[in-house]
What we know:
The protein is of the alpha+beta class.
Amino acid sequence: MIHKREFHDLEKKFDLVVIGGGITGISVAREAAVRGIRVLCVEKNDFACATSSATSKLLHGGLRYLESYEFGLVRESLSERHIMGLAAGHLSRPMQFLVPMFEWSNPGRFIMQMGLSTYDLLAYDRNLGTPEDKQIPPAKWISREEFLKLEPKIESKGLKGGFVYYDYQSTYPERLALAFVKTAVQAGAVMLNHCQATGFGFKAGTKQIESVQIQDTLSGKEYTAKGSVFVNASGPWMDQVLGLAERSPLHKVQKSKGIHLLTDRIIGEQTLFLRNKKGQHCLLLPWEGMTLIGPTDSPYEGSPDDLSPVEEDITMLMDLVNELLPGRPLTREKIRHVPIGIRPLVFSGKSTYRASRKHEIYDHAADQDKIEGLVSVLGGKWTTSRKLGEDVLHACLPKLRSFSPGIQIKDVRTDREPLHGYPTFGASSTEIWEQIALMNHRVPDNVLNHLYTLYGTDYQEVLEIARKEPSLLKRISDEPGRYDIMAQIVYAVENESAHTLSDILSRRLALGSFGYPGDTAAKRAADLAGKLLKWSSSRKTEELKAYRLSYPLERLSTDSKKKK
């Protein structure tokens, strides 16, 4: 359970204040809280509402990073992939990848074989202590006939065969991020969404930060939070947060725009790793009966708050897919959603595609402005977020011991701890599900499995709400394959700090991840949420409009109608 936003918590002084509630800030907060450190994390929108939710839904080692000889990053990523799978087995699962090799493929078979062999070597401990349902086989070559049997929709002309390898799929990254939030809260962290940092306060006569001003973006009320050490984990917004300390950033953020297309299913059950003759690549991933395509990787110079896809982004991905799949199967009508986000990369002077995904930590006391008590983190990737949080905390420890006299820090290994919702680190998700199915036979298996996937052991709390009020077992959407029930809305509001329709449908439930669910389902959800949150009629109308326009395709459609 995430406590309600109780601002009296801000009356105490915190050891650590984290600004930014994406997976980076959340991970830092979790690492601090489980060690007994008094931590506050503030997020101006909702937890994991930006880049952290607009992903390829993967926990992966980064096979293509081997082209840049980033062996250390790949090894770290593969190790963390293993840890994530053991810590949150309900939200991660092995996925098979197919890499077709054509007569013209570059790199060719030999180089790809070397790369995949290196990938396996760097993941030497991938099955250590791993239950059978999470184990990953080594990569292998398959013949042309075997490849076409696994994926008959691939272009057969010039196909020589291909490779099979494995990574993990992160089924719902928004829920995985929330598992980090809940773990932090359970350990004592104060996690506040819809709270924006608006300024820093300095200790009299010094350049040491001692407080941050916060505005509740829902009510407009302002608060002050005192702390010993402050972490800027705002990702693409790093420069803006540094501006609150009245300084210019010395560490430039290289922003990369990435979009995906979520479409009706156009491939089978395996992920396709495609690369055309120009060297452009994309993934086609099966996800919940649909196909997720992407990502793009292009420089972005604007404000993160103004991020939106353009038609050229969509067309580029469509053309790339149709170039390599016969019959040009991807049409505009099949696109249901266009997830979009910004990767905050460490500036390297390279293209955003070739820029490293390593993270860097900056102690601003060492900069020319010598701002004390402020640490920033930039870069990183979802898979290594736990390790990133650990590294940031270790960088802060000397300051914490200096500025928080008497602080007691527990010795905890989070690489051996489950996340909230998973009963035991390294447990078999299959065995857990079999036990659950026996216990709750009155609930349809598809709904039950859906709830277990999203909530882990918390699924029982959702079902308890529905048992008290049977009408809440009704599904929100009438569309086949959409299993969210009305009780989840109650749970999101009462237990998961959901305050807007987008919070509920896009990041607490699964429904919003499939694209705009339609006016009927949206209104059904808004009616119940409005009662729980005491929305006026005008507020509910505003919520419905804002929610619909949170989808890029809906915005593009609206803009197109305005032009006409």
